[in-house]
Design a protein that fits this description.
By secondary structure, this protein is an all-alpha fold. The protein has one domain.
Length: 222
């Protein structure tokens, strides 16, 4: 086991558990509403198009995206398929939590606007879990193999930026409370870190795994 990743998983899991128990006892949190109103009062300009995109990729479209990514990984880094396949179980984790926590979604006048009206419980944010899962799989399974060291750092920064934009968008549209989004991040980090902490999963997923020797063989001598 990778102790660092296991530690991250335990920390995220405990934080998610504490947050979930609190939300179950306090479906409406005034600080949630205040923070969301602050987010909605900002003019985000062109980012509004990004918010719409992240809203669009939910439901069956998200499953199609995951299948396409999995196919690319099988062709481009076959050894990493186990991490990509295991990462999909964040969807099962979402279904389990959402079935236990029945939290009403934001509504006016609690927040300034609600432009989406999805069903099911508000907690946790399934879109957020999906985005965290997708960007992590792409970086672990493909970025680690094809990007140079500096490119991998930039790649992870871009991944974090995409997660942040999605998180802001879920609040801006009034679809989720801030704690829903935070829970989505924590739950996804918990499972992905736990999965990656397994040595043989990480060994197969992370790295370039060259198919040819890095050095030429020495010529045979008589």
């Amino acid at each position: 086991m990778n102790k660092t990743l296991l530690g991250i998983a335990v920390t995220a899991g405990v934080a998610a558990l504490v947050l979930t128990l609190y939300v179950m006892g306090h479906p409406y949190i005034p600080q949630d509403a205040a923070f969301e109103r602050d987010v909605q009062s900002v003019n985000w300009g062109p980012l509004d198009y990004a918010f719409r995109f992240f809203s669009w990729i939910g439901d069956a479209k998200g499953l199609v995206i995951e299948i396409v990514i999995f196919i690319f990984i099988v062709f481009l880094n076959r050894r990493a398929w186990i991490f990509a396949a295991g990462a999909v179980l964040t969807g099962a984790l979402y279904e389990g939590v959402v079935s236990v926590v029945n939290r009403p979604r934001p509504a006016v006048p609690q927040v300034l606007q609600v432009t989406e009206h999805p069903g099911a419980s508000s907690y946790p944010s399934g879109h957020t879990m999906f985005v965290v899962t997708v960007v992590t799989v792409l970086m672990v399974c493909l970025g680690s193999r094809y990007l140079p060291r500096g490119g991998r750092i930039i790649g992870w920064l871009v991944a974090a930026l995409l997660v942040a934009i999605n998180a802001i968008g879920r609040m801006y549209t009034g679809t989720h409370w801030p704690t829903d989004v935070l829970a989505g991040i924590l739950l996804a980090v918990f499972w992905l870190s736990l999965l990656a902490s397994i040595h043989w999963v990480w060994k197969r997923s992370w790295g370039r795994h060259p198919s040819v020797p890095t050095t030429a063989p020495e010529p045979a001598t008589d």
